Amino acid sequence: MQKRTFGNSNLEVSAVGLGCMGMSFSYGPVADKQEMISLIREAVERGVTFFDTAEVYGPFTNEELVGEALAPFRAQVVIATKFGFKPASNGEARWSELDSRPEHIKQVAAGSLKRLKVDAIDLFYQHRVDPDVPIEDVAGAVKGLIQEGKVKHFGLSEAGVQTIRRAHAVQPVTAVQSEYALWWRNPEAEVLPTLEELGIGFVPYSPLGKGFLTGKISENTTFDSSDFRNTLPRFTPEARKANQALIDLLGQIAERKQATPAQIALAWLLVQKPWIVPIPGTTKLSRLEENIGAVAVELTSDALREIESAASQITVQGGSVPRTSRATDRSLSETNGCSGSSCWASYYLVDTNICLQPAPVDRNEAHMALHRARRLHVSSKEPLVLQGCV
Ligand SMILES: NC(=O)c1ccc[n+]([C@@H]2O[C@H](COP(=O)([O-])OP(=O)(O)OC[C@H]3O[C@@H](n4cnc5c(N)ncnc54)[C@H](OP(=O)(O)O)[C@@H]3O)[C@@H](O)[C@H]2O)c1
After folding, report:
1. What spacing in Å lies between the alpha carbon of 19 and ligand 1's midpoint?
2. Is 57 considered catalytic here?
3. 263-275 pLDDT, tens digit each
4. DSSP state string for 46-99
5. Mean pLDDT lowest for which of 124-128, 254-258, 279-283, 372-376?
6. What domains can be seen in the chain, in order of their start residue?
């Protein structure tokens, strides 16, 4: 398997990694632990050296799984994990509240080290920007862990460019992880140019569009009741039907290349920058093999132009985070499930990572939400971008 290096760092990983979240979390029933241990080890046998997990996946169980599976291969692999969530105060099993206080980061690191069965965490990301904790304090806490030898590299997930710059000034950031795929291209506007300038690597998560870009999901597909895709506006049957055009495009290119849509989706990401390393997730060996096969698919500039031009004529429908999502994320607009003329307004609070809950549904509510967002903006001194969607 080809290797890639994250920006100016010395961290080298396989060109395609393995996202392990779905083995224990989010995508329906939890997979059999022994089978997943075998799958992770099969990935190592096939040259995958980059594995992605987080404290919150489970919580805890996904880190335990990854730690157990990779224990025999410690010297060969890079394990990335994430901090920044805490148990919900309302007792919900799913953690949704943020906590990036320095003392909490240190506690999480101690727990992750144990669960991963390692002496040092290779790459430790802040999972979501915490508006209550200055990013300098977060970077300082990770810097301290690096000085103690407990962490090797610092990462951020779903951070905006101001946060990235401020964090990087305190402790060099090795990689940023955010959603990026043919149907979600927001990082191209600001994040990727900033990473290029600063010499930081990029890890696209959900690179297969949570399965949709593989062509194996149609408007008739049903998901298990515990599968979080049931809550995503982009996965309503209507949105899936509308977005089928993108899959048709991938299918046509795949056929000509004797590849699969999933491979084209991943090859497209790989060709964007040499410091991009996607982490597709799967629970199946055949799909793992298919996904890593993307490294061998070469997209000519003609094929790329064709993808760009065809994709630019397709308007992807539906947001990609849950309507009631809290404590996430890159943009407030997504919480509206905004699709064309059907919603009033959408708000981006760049870098503050606070979602509106519930998402505004009418003009008055939207104005109130904007007012609250402005107050937050003032207090956090971050740029505010308002995007109309009417
Ligand atoms: N930083 C963050 O906030 C964040 C957020 C989300 C995810 N992540 C990380 O990113 C990783 C990948 O993202 P993701 O799992 O959300 O999305 P993804 O990789 O885009 O898609 C995973 C889904 O695609 C299916 N799939 C995978 N390969 C396939 C293939 N070749 N053909 C057909 N279906 C295929 C999987 O099902 P099967 O298991 O049935 O194959 C699974 O349902 C996660 O595991 C996690 O580590 C990070």
Report:
1. 6
2. yes
3. 999 999 999 999 9
4. TT--EEE--TTTTTTHHHHHHHHHHGGGGGG-EEEEEE-EE--TT--SS--EE-
5. 372-376
6. 3-224+261-297 (3.20.20.100), 332-387 (no CATH)
